């Protein structure tokens, strides 16, 4: 039985009205296959529905990736776990599922010197989480703090922080670069406090907690901020040589040449 052009046009209009673009694009080819192979109506409908759901999921991930503002090219495949042996690939892969910690508002903290791969790993985890259906926002801490300061001056800080609630994970990159200024650190502390046990934070910092008095203006605020971050947290201490420095040395040395050994010091 053939379908008239009038029926096709009406179906196209109805699918537009129902906002089913994948079904609109695919129904004809599946209808033809269904007729040839004698599918039951339920199989035809299930097949079309599965493709519509898959297409919606793909478009949703595309939107969330654009919204996440992740740095490009930072993936788990591109991260050198061999160079950071204290970070377990298996543990990172488990974190990328998200269920066991994002549902509970737990945190992830990455410590290490500049060039140790903290930002790369943070972005790669963020990318994997988005692909698994979670909402993520990646931000340089100083940039986000400045935006929150503007919101405070406009008497809209509470609303600005509330808007961040749509993100299951907020990645604060380079937290230790926030200047020790009352206005900056107070909005940062308010953000940490508001998300505590509700929404997760992933923090990268090149200074251990003992040095955070350089970030927050008084000891009480430092203790309170650290307490909220570590209460439900996984911590990776990535104390390795700078990847950028190591790469630069290898490039200067040239391919195939062994690393130079340090000349032993003469005993005094």
Fraction of residues in helices?
40-55%
Largest sheet: 5 strands, parallel
Which structural class do the helices and strands define?
alpha/beta
Low-pLDDT parts are 261-268
Q: Could you say which overall geometry the principal axes of the C-alpha atoms support? A: elongated
Radius of gyration: 26 Å
Instruction: State the order of secondary-structure elements, H for helix, E for strand.
Output: HHHHHEHEHHEHEHEH
Strand content: 5-15%
N-C termini distance: 99 Å
Mean pLDDT: 87
Number of helices: 11
| Major sheet: arrangement of strands | 2-3-4-1-5
Describe this structure in words.
This protein is of the alpha/beta class and 268 residues long. Helices cover 53% and strands 10% of the residues. The chain contains eleven helices and five strands. It has helices at 5-17, 21-37, 41-68, 89-97, 99-102, 118-131, 141-153, 157-163, 182-195, 219-230, 243-253, and strands at 107-111, 136-140, 169-173, 200-205, 233-237. It has a five-stranded parallel β-sheet with strand order 2-3-4-1-5. Strand 3 (169-173), helix 9 and strand 4 (200-205) form a beta-alpha-beta unit. Helix 2 (21-37) runs antiparallel to helix 3, helix 4 (89-97) packs across helix 6 and helix 7 (141-153) crosses helix 9 (182-195). It is elongated and about 75 Å long. The model is unreliable at 261-268 (pLDDT under 50).
Keywords:
268 residues, 5-stranded parallel beta sheet, 10% strand, alpha/beta
Topology summary:
Elements: H1 5-17, H2 21-37, H3 41-68, H4 89-97, H5 99-102, E1 107-111, H6 118-131, E2 136-140, H7 141-153, H8 157-163, E3 169-173, H9 182-195, E4 200-205, H10 219-230, E5 233-237, H11 243-253
Helix pairs in contact: 2-3, 3-6, 4-6, 7-8, 7-9
